[in-house]
């Protein structure tokens, strides 16, 4: 398994599925300096390839080549040929191309579209050509949102849907066992507690939230749980405003339940001018409603379609200056209780992963390799 971020919980969930499918795992990956509390399941050896920064894709190439040479040497010296290679993202698929035998089946997983259409610049075109080659080569493409298929991948390869597996970012089964669903809806009262939970990005959306909450002191509090490039700015803002709080990074497996118990509303608003945001389904879509916490999301996104369809939250326009302020003027504890009851009334299969359609596919790929 090749991971661009060893602390990424989605990668840990996928590793657990592969273990269930009967694989022994060796994980190579990079450290990002975020969410170091999150670890792979017991029994999995992880080998760090060092630190790598977000973005700056062209600058990464020398480091990727160095990593590929290291993996090739290490695998040749200590391991028999693998029966499967699982690569998260284009960087890791490129490493696989240099480091591993071309006869080993490749599963290529994408959680975000990093090189959206249209591909007009030279770098963007080069990335697209590379990705087309990876799509042609891989045994399976795994995506976390069905919107990625018509919105991006079918424009690179018209036949890609035939070998695509959709695994949405649902709550891990182990976490669902660890944190049972509440039996009663949220009993929200003033001040209403808004949670911003996860990886802090899209600065304009977070600044708009902080400013709106501060203006409504007494009626709202804002609680940040997580990590990311905006962490320092959030921490400093919280120091000077008594209804904004930063609680630090957290472990999904240890802390998720108590975090959602502590908030009344989950803020999941990202920049809807970003093509990836318009197509993606983030993990917060599943976590909040599982715990009976309604959501606020951005309009003109696939995420907003799901929220409206299920009746589990609010939709605002982050491009409209007063959209969030207007919503906050309308929100009452009674409305939140009704939305919480709606969320908890939905079957947990909407929110908790089910490996029954995935694990047999992984098993079959391993069997096909062993018969060669």
Helix count, DSSP H or I runs of 4 or more residues = 15
Percentage of residues in DSSP E strands: 15-25%
The count of DSSP E runs of length 2 or more, i.e. the number of strands, is 13
Using only C-alpha atoms, the radius of gyration works out to 21 Å
- Oligomeric state of shown chains: single chain
Average pLDDT, all residues:
94
- Percent helix: 40-55%
> Order of strands side by side in the largest beta sheet?
10-9-8-11-12-13
Shape: globular
Q: Sketch the major β-sheet.
A: 6 strands, parallel
H-E order: EHEEHEHEHEHEHEHEHEHEHHEHEHHH
Task: List the keywords.
372 residues, alpha/beta, six-stranded parallel beta sheet, 13 strands
Description:
The protein has 372 residues and is α/β, with parallel strands linked by helices. Helix content is 44%, strand content 17%. It contains 15 helices and 13 strands. It has helices spanning 9-20, 57-78, 89-99, 122-137, 148-156, 173-178, 203-215, 231-239, 252-261, 275-279, 284-290, 302-310, 323-330, 333-345, 359-370, and strands spanning 2-3, 26-31, 45-51, 85-88, 106-110, 140-143, 164-166, 192-199, 220-227, 244-246, 265-268, 295-298, 313-316. The strands form three sheets. It has a six-stranded parallel sheet with strand order 10-9-8-11-12-13, sandwiched between helices. A four-stranded parallel sheet has the order 4-5-6-7, covered by helices on one side. The chain has a three-stranded parallel sheet with strand order 1-2-3. Helix 1 (9-20) links the parallel strand 1 (2-3) and strand 2 (26-31). It is globular. The protein starts with a strand and ends with a helix. The mean pLDDT is 94.
